[in-house]
Amino acid sequence: MKANDYLLLLDADDTLWESALFFERTEHDFLSLMSALGLPEDEVRRTVHRKDVERLSITGYGARPYMDTLRTIMQDLAPQAPSWALTAMDNIQMNLLGHPVILLPGVISALREMKNLQINTIVYTMGEKDHQTDKFVRSGLDGYVDELRIVPVKNVNALRDVLVYAHVEPENCMIVGNSPRSDINPALSLGAVAVHVARDRTWAAEREDFTDPGMVITIERFDELPDVLGSFLNADNSQIKKNSINSDWRLHS
Which of 2, 22, 101, 125 is most buried by a 10 A CB count? Predict the structure, then answer.
């Protein structure tokens, strides 16, 4: 098979660029603000984490829905918040929506190397279309990939739709990301090759056990990916593909 018969799907947030870092800063600023209004920080933190998970099934992923959750919490816990506090909330939101796009180590060099392999490469991310598109444009990565695809939530059905759209069988697709819930487990469910980019920062809602740990390839840095991809493309056929890769790269244990 030719390289263009395969598909490489790359997660964006916390795989190509920093994301959780800025949500953590937003939470820290919000907790500081609520503390200044006389609310116990630990209590507010628990409320934020609970409400954040609860709203996902309603609002989906994204920075604006997250900020809406924080504003609702503020309204519930501090209904008479003074004008300076409301202004502070506006500033917190601006900082989150307009945070700099900071590429993770090794991303540019790896993408440049993989581009030479001529494999169809799609940045596959979730959230609000305008916000994710803005970050992608500011990242400067458009020249290294073929397409950006944004979905409200990444799960098995969304991944299946991408594979149908690309006319690629699961065993000919490599999915790379930091999230067990949104990247790795959907890939495992469909029989795609799953590459986990291990990160200390992973949003709590995205953490879960791998459904098949023995089939997960783990890398510590993005610039390890070209060699993994090379093994994937050089495998003789789909039946030996995973075994070929696994013989060269450590599996999650």
Answer: 125
